[in-house]
Give the backbone structure.
Amino acid sequence: MKHVNIPVFVPHLGCPKQCVFCDQRAISGVRSFDEGKARRVIERHLATLGDAEAEIAFFGGSFTGIGRERMTALLELAEEYVRAGLVRGIRFSTRPDFIDGEILEILSRYTITAAELGIQSSSDRVLALSKRGHTAEDSRRAMELLAEAGIPLVGQMMLGLPGAEAEDDRETARFIADCGASFARIYPTAVFRSTELYDMTLRGEYRPLSEEEAVERGADVLGIFSRRGVEVIRIGLPEGAGEEEFFAGPRHPAMGERIRSALYGRILGKACEAAGIPEKGDGAPVTLTVRTAPGEISAAAGYGRENKIRIENKYNVKKVKFIENPMVSRYNITLSSLSDSAGGGKPSCI
Ligand code: SF4
């Protein structure tokens, strides 16, 4: 069944600080918020839901930092729709330093189906440069509390924050997996004009990642998450988000596709090496069959079929075929090659 979030944006509500990279008003396009608006947003989405299973999602602020009265009013509103059987549950995004015993006790009265924590980085140095106002230890403690409470956890992280080298980003992905997240979102850092990061960029204190750097770092962390069983539910901002305020940084409309393609490119390259596929001008041409998980052919063949083209250019192949196989998991492949001179012999599989 298709799943959708009914996003109720609460831009910057509950945020005690302004993180240097963040402008939720620009990203969400929602300038202000009131409870009456929340009900109208939910009703409007429900009217177009069809058969999809939905959660009401309070995004764009620090939900558990909102004053208790207002926060519980929003939870009560959402729970009405859960009780009526119209949505499956409630999810929200918040900061790690706003998860504690008191919050969990309040949340336990409602049908919370996921908590999305803005981890952003596991490096205290990067968190300080981004003016997050919390430490990695706060993130670890929040994730452990949510795990103990049995609330599914989504770890949100950013690529290329101020001071973050590629290894810092990889370490953040390992940290999120170590702390028990089931899901993750990956956001390459973009510079919006309305943020402090814009001034830092103009002063030369921050250099945004290039698109290629973001793709490589994204493939690194996607690989870590996939090996650790953390499902990545989003890569990059939705198309058009914050367009008017956007100044610099990686912002390819198909960033997710490009990162998935880069990861499959690495996997295919290693598989070809391991299978000893002959390079161009070396031995008899082979037909390669690449088996992928269902629905993954396009990502494996690559963005603009870049992976398929790379194999065709590097190796002595007559043909590269991609086939779905339900036995293969996502971000894995099996490869078999059949030599033209093999006379119909058995393919070699890896
Ligand atoms: S990143 Fe999160 S905590 Fe920071 S300003 Fe944005 S919404 Fe608030």
